[in-house]
Specification:
Layout: H1 7-26, H2 28-34, E1 40-42, E2 48-52, E3 59-67, E4 73-81, E5 86-95, E6 103-105, E7 118-119, E8 124-125, E9 131-139, E10 145-147, E11 149-156, E12 161-166, E13 169-173
Parallel strand pairs: 2-13
Antiparallel strand pairs: 1-3, 3-6, 3-9, 4-8, 4-11, 5-7, 5-9, 10-13, 11-12
């Protein structure tokens, strides 16, 4: 006869507490290297992209997105961490046509793949797709703005939900 109990719950609590202790001891960036981020990856890690813009002027900055394996991924949400002086006013998955998307002034000089963009949340990205995650950013005050970390939460087929984290630094300034 099989007995049911709450042993799984105690094990789960132990894993959560153990993970919290590891984050405390190693720091967030070291913890990030231990986590399985699944088949989606964000390129440009460690790069710094600076673009000029006045307060309230939207600019787009692209970051490469790749999907490994055989399953398409579905983006659940995009979030940013470590942002100062910037507001994210949109995020899109944009197919790359000819060259990768660097930065551009939204409404003026969109890249060639821009007409085929889709909202990032809900976007389906097939393996082998050459695309960029484009954030539309605005400076929200008199000072320069920056953000350090972009996070994409997504589902990969029946394998589960993952979070890919990119650390390309975005800077939006009056003069780069």
């Amino acid at each position: 006869m099989r007995r049911s109990g709450n042993l799984g719950g105690a094990r789960s609590v132990g894993l959560v507490v153990g993970g919290a202790v590891l984050v405390g001891l190693l720091g967030w960036s070291a913890w990030e290297t231990l986590v399985d981020h699944g088949p989606l990856s964000l390129g440009g890690t460690g790069d710094i992209v600076c673009t000029n813009a006045d307060v309230g002027e939207p600019v787009g900055i692209g970051q490469p997105v790749t999907v490994a394996g055989d399953d398409a991924v579905v983006v659940d949400r995009v979030s940013v961490r470590d942002a100062t002086g910037l507001e994210v006013v949109g995020h899109y998955i944009v197919p790359v046509v000819d060259t990768r998307i660097g930065s551009f002034r939204a409404g003026e000089s969109e890249p060639p793949g821009w007409p085929s963009r889709v909202e990032a949340a809900g976007a389906v990205i097939e393996p082998g797709t050459v695309a960029d995650l484009v954030l539309i950013l605005e400076r929200d005050g008199a000072g320069d703005g920056s953000l350090q970390t972009v996070s994409v939460r997504y589902t990969a087929g029946s394998k589960g939900t993952y979070e890919a984290v990119g650390t390309m630094r975005y800077e939006v300034e009056s003069d780069c």
